[in-house]
């Protein structure tokens, strides 16, 4: 734990923000005000934050359909995101994208993505731009165990190696590829497979912020030294279904409960931070209260946000047409 | 006849065809679901929309095959298995995922027979859900049938009723050519009378769902019930329309449309797709080239706008053609002389 108290406070707050954002959406979703598919990141907070706390302003990330955590960890505005998820004209994407397409280019966040495995080649391109810029910046793609079986991911891995690009593959194994177990869909294992492309892999405990942070730090040192791409492989679980409303018949009844009670990412970071005497439980509770108030007010304003109309439907298809 | 949803009608067709021909296999992501999961339930999904429910229990894991998320390999697998003598029914959860697997569709399955001197047979059925209605946004809501209908070698089937869903899926499975089978996700819960036992609906034959003398209304998929609403409302005012459900956009039943047009002289085409190179454009072109002398007014094309499918409820509602839009088009085509 060589991070400064400020860094740790920031990481804890980001994780709490993701957790409460998602837990609240899980409560709000069945009320019927949120349209479309919502895929929640609860359970995996340590991964997004452990990676993104290592990044510089000039770096890029690209996310997945389960993108809220990555977006928040990268600094996207939670209120703007909440408005987007509620389909509001003043949402981060004007209500056009919704949960699955949250993006903020001003934050180097190249978007959540509805197509599984689509982000990796795009991040290869962003990494090419980083290399051309020559400022040491990197591009990160988040890839689930499910997406890892897409040909696009294999192509992106090979091309990043061939072109020796500053690209981090952040591999997240949450145990399930939609409604099928990860072990069924992945023939060998993600580490061996990734190494087979010539990409070194640092493994991490996806429930432990410090473990992910340190693995990412090592991978980024390797990348920023000009060695080409590297990967981290973090294992955790998602607490909710593939999408909100998923009955999860593939999952044992007590599975999530056990994870929540034993290795939970918030529990883990709190224990480590208070155990090391960096912050007291009361100090962390204060952060929690601030985050909860922010979520409350974001939901309230999102519920009453402006409805998008014809002008938003018809604009931005092109820049000039 | 029994009343059932389109979802159950499709499921029945799959059961019956798998029973009838052991070369029929079902492949795709979560077509059974649950393998490798902690509950031990190895049929935990039955397809994301429940269309393939019960198949694995009935026919076993050798014929109902869950795949990793690998759309390109799913379609490639179906192509290869078909060339080697099987009759795969492959599923892409969402039509949008055609984007991931397009090479296997338009360079491979569509062209084998022609390129290989007429010696190849690729009896693949590629099922996929399509369409707006769930606020699933730009990458999970598209109706891309115009794009695939333009590819020689593919047949394209798009049922709008449970009975047609059953009969057309059975026909697709027995067809020796590759068939792209679109299922509108907003129609899965639509109920209707479905014939029991073996039931086949031939391709290239549109369905005349309403008969009238004033206007010919041609529609596809979810636009069929929308158009029916408009047509039935106008019938109350004494405006009567032929309502034609195209059912297949490749082949197109030109005869039924032209025959109707020769009686009415006025044409409204309703298509949920984007306007450029749409099926609406194709049918308007058909009227202009082969029905020109029958036309008494400009053809009305009702389509989505030239935009991606938006997310927010209000935006999606604006995007999708509505029964009101169709009613207005019918009135408009009657005014023009």
TrEMBL record, chain A:
<feature type="domain" description="Dehydrogenase E1 component">
    <location>
        <begin position="13"/>
        <end position="308"/>
    </location>
</feature>
<keyword id="KW-0786">Thiamine pyrophosphate</keyword>
<comment type="function">
    <text>The pyruvate dehydrogenase complex catalyzes the overall conversion of pyruvate to acetyl-CoA and CO(2). It contains multiple copies of three enzymatic components: pyruvate dehydrogenase (E1), dihydrolipoamide acetyltransferase (E2) and lipoamide dehydrogenase (E3).</text>
</comment>
<dbReference type="InterPro" id="IPR001017">
    <property type="entry name" value="DH_E1"/>
</dbReference>
<dbReference type="InterPro" id="IPR029061">
    <property type="entry name" value="THDP-binding"/>
</dbReference>
<dbReference type="Pfam" id="PF00676">
    <property type="entry name" value="E1_dh"/>
</dbReference>
<dbReference type="InterPro" id="IPR050642">
    <property type="entry name" value="PDH_E1_Alpha_Subunit"/>
</dbReference>
<protein>
    <submittedName>
        <fullName>Dehydrogenase E1 component</fullName>
    </submittedName>
</protein>
<keyword id="KW-0560">Oxidoreductase</keyword>
TrEMBL record, chain B:
<protein>
    <submittedName>
        <fullName>Pyruvate dehydrogenase subunit beta</fullName>
    </submittedName>
</protein>
<dbReference type="InterPro" id="IPR005475">
    <property type="entry name" value="Transketolase-like_Pyr-bd"/>
</dbReference>
<feature type="domain" description="Transketolase-like pyrimidine-binding">
    <location>
        <begin position="4"/>
        <end position="190"/>
    </location>
</feature>
<dbReference type="InterPro" id="IPR029061">
    <property type="entry name" value="THDP-binding"/>
</dbReference>
<keyword id="KW-0560">Oxidoreductase</keyword>
<dbReference type="InterPro" id="IPR033248">
    <property type="entry name" value="Transketolase_C"/>
</dbReference>
<dbReference type="Pfam" id="PF02780">
    <property type="entry name" value="Transketolase_C"/>
</dbReference>
<keyword id="KW-0670">Pyruvate</keyword>
<dbReference type="Pfam" id="PF02779">
    <property type="entry name" value="Transket_pyr"/>
</dbReference>
<dbReference type="InterPro" id="IPR009014">
    <property type="entry name" value="Transketo_C/PFOR_II"/>
</dbReference>
